[in-house]
């Protein structure tokens, strides 16, 4: 049996030498590769097309196959810088405007602060706080009217700008009209300030950013001071009167 296998291998090697046509002698590499494939597959017939087509197949595979490492890493695109928030523009406001605005907050903050210190609800102080808020609404309407009058102003004196400047005046007038019901009057002032702020930010966006920042601060602090007044009224007794549980 062993001699039969040796003879068979010698005969197959001779066939390999003469299997290629004239002028196309197979290289030693091709013959060795065919021998290895024959030994692995136990095929008695050589397949010369395997070695000749294998390099071409590998070249095509290399063209179509690309490892992830060969891709160039995409440069991270720089994200656009976020625009600063509106309140951050306060530092850009002129110093006189900043100091005058802070001083204008005193009539809003002083009444609830005094009532907290005395632990007493004082109606006259609450009324002065409401009256100052209503006057502030009139002031906001005058600012818009005056801003639209100069030539070259971005706010034209059209119906939109002039009518929106009168809107805070109606809230002010209505707050004084129902001033006997002080809580409802304070709510009217808060609503007027919120609507005026909405107009200045979205409907009429022509004011400078520092002015808008000051408007946000004033509106928030004024609203917070009114809320404190409501809390004081619900917790502490009114001046000159005692709560039923204290009698």
Q: Which key features would you list for this structure?
A:
9 helices, extended
Task: Characterize the structure shown.
- 67% of the residues lie in helices and 0% in strands.
- The protein is built from 9 helices and no strands.
- The protein has helices spanning 2-18, 28-41, 48-64, 95-104, 106-118, 123-148, 159-177, 182-203, 209-235.
Q: What are the SSEs and their pairings?
A:
Layout: H1 2-18, H2 28-41, H3 48-64, H4 95-104, H5 106-118, H6 123-148, H7 159-177, H8 182-203, H9 209-235
Helix pairs in contact: 2-3, 5-6, 5-9, 6-7, 6-8, 7-8, 8-9
Model regions low in confidence, pLDDT < 50 over at least 5 residues: 19-26, 42-75, 243-247
Order of helices and strands: HHHHHHHHH
How much helicity do the residues have?
Answer: 55-70%
Calculate the terminal CA-CA distance, rounded to whole Å: 126 Å
Mean pLDDT: 76
Determine the number of helices (DSSP H or I, runs of at least 4 residues): 9
Total DSSP E strands: 0
Cα shape: extended
Radius of gyration: 45 Å
Structural class designation: mainly alpha
Percentage of β-strand residues: under 5%
Main beta-sheet strand count, sense and barrel state:
none
């Amino acid at each position: 049996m062993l001699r039969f296998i040796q003879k068979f291998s010698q005969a197959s090697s001779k066939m390999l030498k003469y299997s290629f046509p004239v002028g196309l002698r197979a290289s030693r590499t091709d013959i060795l590769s065919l021998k290895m494939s024959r030994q692995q597959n136990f095929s008695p017939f050589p397949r010369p097309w395997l070695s000749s087509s294998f390099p071409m197949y590998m070249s095509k595979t290399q063209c179509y196959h690309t490892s992830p490492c060969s891709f160039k890493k995409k440069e991270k695109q720089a994200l656009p810088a976020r625009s600063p928030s509106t309140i951050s523009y306060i530092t850009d406001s002129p110093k006189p405007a900043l100091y005058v605005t802070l001083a204008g907050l005193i009539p809003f903050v002083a009444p609830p602060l005094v009532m907290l210190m005395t632990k007493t609800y004082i109606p006259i102080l609450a009324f002065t706080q409401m009256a100052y808020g209503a006057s502030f609404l009139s002031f906001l309407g005058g600012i818009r009217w005056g801003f639209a009058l100069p030539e070259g102003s971005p706010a034209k004196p059209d119906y939109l700008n002039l009518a929106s400047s009168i809107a805070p005046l109606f809230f002010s007038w209505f707050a004084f009209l129902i001033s006997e019901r002080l809580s409802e009057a304070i709510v009217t002032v808060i609503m007027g300030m919120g609507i005026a702020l909405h107009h200045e930010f979205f409907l009429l966006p022509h004011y400078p950013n520092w002015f808008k920042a000051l408007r946000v601060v004033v509106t928030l602090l004024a609203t917070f001071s009114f809320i404190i007044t409501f809390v004081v009224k619900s917790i502490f007794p009114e001046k000159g009167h005692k709560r039923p549980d204290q009698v």
